[in-house]
TrEMBL record, chain A:
<comment type="subunit">
    <text>Mammalian complex I is composed of 45 different subunits.</text>
</comment>
<keyword id="KW-0679">Respiratory chain</keyword>
<dbReference type="InterPro" id="IPR016488">
    <property type="entry name" value="NADH_Ub_cplx-1_asu_su-6"/>
</dbReference>
<dbReference type="GO" id="GO:0005743">
    <property type="term" value="C:mitochondrial inner membrane"/>
</dbReference>
<dbReference type="InterPro" id="IPR008011">
    <property type="entry name" value="Complex1_LYR_dom"/>
</dbReference>
<dbReference type="GO" id="GO:0045271">
    <property type="term" value="C:respiratory chain complex I"/>
</dbReference>
<dbReference type="InterPro" id="IPR045299">
    <property type="entry name" value="Complex1_LYR_NDUFA6_LYRM6"/>
</dbReference>
<comment type="similarity">
    <text>Belongs to the complex I LYR family.</text>
</comment>
<keyword id="KW-0813">Transport</keyword>
From TrEMBL, chain B:
<dbReference type="InterPro" id="IPR036736">
    <property type="entry name" value="ACP-like_sf"/>
</dbReference>
<comment type="similarity">
    <text>Belongs to the acyl carrier protein (ACP) family.</text>
</comment>
<keyword id="KW-0597">Phosphoprotein</keyword>
<dbReference type="GO" id="GO:0005739">
    <property type="term" value="C:mitochondrion"/>
</dbReference>
<feature type="domain" description="Carrier">
    <location>
        <begin position="26"/>
        <end position="101"/>
    </location>
</feature>
<keyword id="KW-0443">Lipid metabolism</keyword>
<keyword id="KW-0444">Lipid biosynthesis</keyword>
<keyword id="KW-0249">Electron transport</keyword>
<keyword id="KW-0276">Fatty acid metabolism</keyword>
Length: 128, 106
């Protein structure tokens, strides 16, 4: 961008971020949908191989939940990184490098939610 | 000699054409509509052959992906991404399947 002010040229350096994987948002969208497809197809095998006490509808809902968490993200590089992490999780889960407990971690059944209101935080011992 | 030839003929493999496999546009339509009706996020009343998945039936892109996967499972072959993006109505899907399986589309 160049703007002339009083006869002098001010050149602004236009910085563009180097793409991680995808060049366009269309490309990134395809990656996301392919990741979803791969996870979706792997779910029945995960349930069978890890012998987790889960049903297929539960797993599908959890998969959808994890994808919906990042629905608002529009930055292509961030989307690429999230897809890469999702892909790594899928590879680890599919090859059985994880254990049953790691699969159940997605469902956070033993995590107590952090208190948000004042009284909850007070009982927890947090200083305001 | 002719009997021998007849025996050999029966051992030759016949590659099934679409019509011999019992595929017609009506059968494809029926199978596609059954698969779509079984999809629980679609209400059966609003569903017609021309209803748009995203605009009229209220599906989002992940639902669309799930639906196309159900159709891939039903018909036994993969639908690539560039084609999958364009399949927004049941009629599009039926037309695409007819083209892929070499059935006459009217």
């Amino acid at each position: 961008l160049m703007s002339s002010a009083g006869g002098t040229l001010i050149r602004q350096a236009v910085k563009e971020a180097k793409p991680v994987f995808s060049a366009t948002s269309e490309d990134a969208r395809r990656r996301v949908l392919n990741l979803y497809r791969a996870w979706f197809r792997q779910l029945p095998y995960i349930i069978r191989e890890y012998d987790v006490p889960l049903t297929l509808p539960m797993c599908r809902r959890k998969l959808r939940e994890n994808f919906e968490k990042y629905r608002q993200v529009n930055d292509i590089r961030v989307i690429d990184l999230l897809v890469a992490k999702g892909q790594m999780e899928l590879v680890e889960t599919a090859h059985m490098w994880k254990q049953k407990t790691h699969v159940m971690d997605y469902f956070k059944q033993t995590v107590t939610p952090k208190p948000t209101d004042f009284l909850g935080k007070f009982f927890d011992g947090k200083e305001p | 000699i002719s009997q021998h030839a007849i025996q050999r003929c029966s051992q030759w493999r016949c590659y099934a054409s679409a019509s011999s496999a019992g595929l017609s546009q009506d059968k494809i339509t029926e199978r596609v509509m059954t698969v779509i009706k079984l999809f629980e996020k679609i209400s059966a009343e609003k569903l017609t052959i021309e209803s748009h998945f995203m605009k009229e039936l209220g599906l989002d892109s992940l639902d669309h992906v799930e639906l196309l996967m159900a159709i891939e499972d039903e018909f036994g072959f993969e639908i690539p991404d560039q084609d999958a993006e364009k399949l927004n109505k049941p009629s599009d899907i039926i037309k695409y399947l007819c083209e892929k399986m070499e059935v006459d589309y009217k």
